Fold Class I SAM-dependent methyltransferase.
Amino acid sequence: MVLLYIPNTRAILENVYSVLNKGGKLIIVDFDYNEKVKHPKVHSGFKQDELKRLLSEIGFQSSEIRNFHHAKDVFMNQDADVFIAISQKN
């Protein structure tokens, strides 16, 4: 749950891709997008289809994203779904 605080998501994921070994995996755990969350220093979560597309554009393959938890009042005092994304550098 770090990407929420990174202003340029693409840049940090490109950096991770550049240092990851071939066959290495990136695992992201974060919040689904929530339109009720508004803060100047935090993303409003991530839309899974957009994150998957971004990972693919950067070069990651075999990206799988799925929700695994729902919690009350955890994301800027809003209910939230949490996802895990697993992508591989080939």
Q: What stands out?
A: Residues 9-19 form the longest helix (11 residues). Helices lie at 9-19, 48-58.
